[in-house]
Design a protein that fits this description.
Layout: H1 19-24, H2 30-33, H3 39-53, E1 60-63, E2 74-77, E3 87-92, H4 101-116, E4 125-129, H5 136-143, H6 145-160, H7 174-182, E5 188-190, H8 193-200, H9 206-210, H10 232-246, H11 260-283, H12 291-308, H13 314-327, H14 341-353
Parallel strand pairs: 3-4, 4-5
Antiparallel strand pairs: 1-2, 2-3
Helix pairs in contact: 3-8, 4-6, 5-6, 10-13, 10-14, 11-14, 12-13, 13-14
């Protein structure tokens, strides 16, 4: 029996083990991650890309699902005529290898057949999108449209005629053959997966899909001297709270000068409100829709019991609620690392602005 030996520790390691690696393993590059998607998830990813990164090109983006999609996966419409107007098609394919011509031929055939029958106008552009891209042969055909049509015609009987519909073979004859002969095959194009991912970085869905952390948050500019119209509700709620505390009516914020403590408290609340607004606006286009609203909901759920308790007056209710908000454990929330105690106080005033929190009964 051979002598057992200890496994030697590799020398010259160039990485340092981090907490993130221990919990989740090493990061996976987006180009590798998309290969693991299901066909449905790949379509969702492309829908995000077209809808958010190419939105300046389209009036509307729609995803077609189901067996009777007539060769359309994701369509971007440039005008209100939709399928009868100017539109582009993004054909999603998710295979374990680059798309070969045999996979593309039936898809091209569907566009030819259904546009010939008036189900829609031919798209302005038709893109094949796949995590491993198009294979060398198909890419060469797509890059040289003059070679694409003869290659398709040659493959028609074997790859296309029985794959367009389930009810009948589609033969290349008569008016349909003439239509195919004069069709503009330059509309069919490949797309670089790397380019898609780089553009997707600008969408609010990128971080949720691929990680990488949130971008650095810029320093908040602070509250302006003049109170804006969008502050009217929460400012009014605070004045009511101060009046409840002092037992004197307050017509406007100028009246707070009489009480230095309340005046300074009011200024801090405005700074907090603008901090929360800066947080909301900065991450609005950088995380998935609803992310900031879910943070507001976390704060609301954390303070509402304190809000509903009996307090000496409205001012003490404000103090109690904002103190609880500052101490809440929100580490599980995606925005936790970018949220300061001041922001949590400000979110309370955002909630007051929405009539969800009221300081006086």
């Amino acid at each position: 029996m051979d002598e057992l030996k200890e496994i030697a520790v590799p020398k010259g390691a160039k990485t340092v083990l981090t907490a993130a690696h221990v919990q989740s393993g090493p990061p996976i590059e987006p180009l590798v991650r998309v290969v693991t998607y299901s066909a449905s998830e790949w379509e969702t990813f492309i829908d995000e890309w077209v809808s958010h990164c190419l939105k300046s090109e389209y009036l509307k983006v729609l995803r077609f699902t189901g067996a009777n999609d007539r060769g359309i996966d994701i369509a971007g419409f440039a005008d209100e005529q939709f399928l009868d107007g100017v539109w582009d098609n993004y054909q999603c394919k998710h295979y374990d290898k680059p798309i070969p011509p045999a996979v593309a031929w039936p898809e091209i055939g569907k566009i030819l057949w259904h546009s010939f029958n008036g189900h829609y106008k031919p798209p302005r552009a038709y893109y094949f999108v796949a995590p491993r891209g198009t294979g060398t042969s198909l890419t060469q055909y797509l890059a040289n449209p003059s070679t694409l049509k003869p290659a398709l015609l040659k493959a028609w009987d074997k790859n296309v005629k029985d794959a367009i519909t389930t009810t009948q073979p589609i033969l290349l004859e008569g008016d349909f053959a003439a239509y195919v002969d004069r069709f503009d095959f330059s509309i069919f194009k490949p797309v670089s997966v790397r380019e898609i991912i780089e553009q997707h970085r600008q969408s609010p869905y990128f971080i949720g899909r691929f990680g990488g952390g949130l971008p650095a948050r810029p320093k908040a500019e602070g509250a302006p001297d003049e109170i804006g119209s969008h502050e009217s509700v929460y400012v009014g709620r605070l004045l009511e709270a101060y009046a409840d505390h002092t037992k004197e009516a307050l017509a406007d914020v100028a009246g707070l000068k009489k009480w230095d403590k309340l005046d300074k408290h009011f200024q801090r609340q405005r700074e907090s409100f603008y901090g929360a607004e800066a947080l909301r606006v900065f991450f609005r286009d950088k995380v998935e829709p609803g992310t900031f609203e879910s943070l507001q909901e976390e704060i609301y759920e954390g303070v509402v019991d304190t809000h509903d308790k009996d307090h000496l007056d409205g001012y003490h209710r404000v103090m109690a609620v904002t103190e609880v908000a500052q101490a809440l454990q929100i580490e599980a929330h995606p925005l936790a690392s970018c949220t300061f105690p001041r922001d949590r106080r400000g979110i309370c005033h955002q909630l007051a602005n929405e009539d969800r929190l009221k300081w006086t009964k």
